[in-house]
Design brief:
Number of strands: 14
CATH class: Alpha Beta
Strand order of the largest sheet: 3-4-2-1-14-13
Largest sheet: 6 strands, mixed
Strand content: 25-35%
Distance between the termini: 6 Å
Radius of gyration: 17 Å
Length: about 260
């Protein structure tokens, strides 16, 4: 089974790229972030033509997450925890893979910039609430995959020039400690588990020629619970979509499990 995650930076603006990606990479499930549309305007029929059902938690103009899937997803929950700003940032569902029930959590973590504003406070509170809710979920099921745009650079190796980001909400030490706290509940940062020293990125800003210069950062992640780790075949950052016309500033990450 292949599960992909991709912050598409507007599903409608990126629809041709997304459909081409589905045809080329053929994921069973695609987790989308920053769809930037309400449920009723989501391009359900475009995905349906390729055999994908849509599970949407949208919001007008901003945020929004969704699953598009060839596999039936049960127990959809759009209220994983109470978001103080009522933003559409998490969608939860469960799938059956062989004999295992697996919980999928698709997230779009607040950016948090600039620091010293309520945006940064919101990010910290959001992550804190998320950790508490994951801990509770983990106590009843240890088969969990969390995927999405975390807006967190875990370590120095995960950004082209970490010194530029020491006072950025994506790399602040207290934010990275929260990422570690989440992992310590019983997860692995799957990419880093398989590639200890590899320097690859998932995001390149549209500005300053970041893509051709490879001035990127790794902020999109799959966290897999330790219970499922032996099932993971591989994880790949697929850079091809970032080089297309009208690309998202993120590129897909792909997790394959037995």
């Amino acid at each position: 089974m292949k599960i992909s995650s991709w912050n598409v930076n507007s599903v409608r603006a990126r629809i041709e790229n997304i459909l081409n990606y589905l045809k080329d990479s053929k994921p069973d499930i695609l987790m989308l972030q920053e769809i930037k549309t309400e449920d009723q305007n989501f391009p359900i029929n475009d995905f349906k033509k390729l055999g994908y059902d849509s599970y949407i938690f949208g919001q007008k103009s901003y945020n929004g997450v969704a699953f598009v899937s060839k596999i039936n997803i049960d127990n959809i929950n759009k209220n994983f925890f109470k978001d103080q700003k009522k933003q559409s940032r998490i969608i939860f569902g469960s799938i059956k893979n062989k004999s295992k029930n697996i919980n999928l959590i698709n997230i779009y973590v607040p950016n948090g910039n600039p620091i010293n504003t309520d945006k940064y406070d919101y990010k910290k509170e959001w992550i804190e609430l998320f950790i508490k809710r994951v801990k509770k979920t983990y106590s009843t099921s240890q088969n969990i995959i969390i995927g999405g745009d975390f807006n967190i650079i875990p370590n120095e190796i995960d950004v082209y020039d970490y010194k530029k980001y020491e006072n950025d909400a994506l790399f602040k030490l207290e934010i990275r400690k929260k990422f570690r706290e989440l992992i310590n509940l019983g997860f692995q940062d799957t990419y880093r588990y398989f590639y200890k020293d590899k320097q690859e990125y998932t995001f390149w800003d549209y500005m300053s020629g970041s893509w051709p210069k490879n001035h990127g950062m790794r902020i999109d992640h799959f966290l897999v619970s330790n219970n499922l780790l032996s099932e993971v075949k591989q994880i790949v950052i697929n850079k091809k979509p970032r080089g297309k016309v009208k690309p998202s500033d993120h590129t897909p990450i792909e997790l394959e499990i037995n």
